User: What shape does this take?
Amino acid sequence: MRLKDKIVLITSAQNPCAKAIPAGYSPEGANCVVLDRDASKAEQLRAEVRSLGRRALALQVDITKKSEIEEAVRRTVAEFGRINVLLNCSGITHESDFLSFTEEAFDQCIDRGPKAYFLASQAVGRQMAAQGSGKIINLSSTDARIGSGESTGNSVAYSSIDSMTRAIAQALGYYGVNVNSLVCGPMDNFSGTVEEAGERLRRIPMGRLGKPEDLVGAAIFLATDDSKFVVGESLYVDAGYSNAAVTEDSFRPPWGRTWGPFQAPPGSK
Assistant: This one.
């Protein structure tokens, strides 16, 4: 077990990727504390962790409120004695045309993203600094690196998270705390048209959109001693999506030229 008896604090129970990661951590021996504004969502994820044979605690917390986060940290330490891993995963995604994107939606991207990540990292960082060890993992998105017309709020929030990751990594590294960002690419819960999905798939040589489970291996790596010399990095788990430039159809295999219904090549599942 690579995470035997480690205590993992998770700042949201609603992000699909955030749900998959505890399911991967638990068989490795981790116990989890789940925070969420929606108590029922936190309780549901707590039950899933306990069903895998590990200890878990669910706390109703508004992750944008400093006092509530600090109280959650206090209760976690009172229950488990320490915090080994913080998974910041409360960021949200808003898709909207720029000219009609609302101030309210923009504020939500900032509040649930960089503001919440900062507050949680600071509160947990104090505990980890006192311990002399810890891992902070900031869940991010490829919108941090690349832009599109509907991603204004996402791009601002996640690029801020990535740059903040580097800064906090420098501040907490002196105390033995590793801080890194885990960046996910286009996921299979994409709600666009077949043609829009095809456009995304043309940028992914692996031939499919991502699944939450695709992040688990990288999340385990960042939570263990295997990453003890990895500091302030953004680990992209996007099958090459964010690195893709224009590739003419003549250089693509036939299955990669389709703009309509996309047929993944054999062996790409």
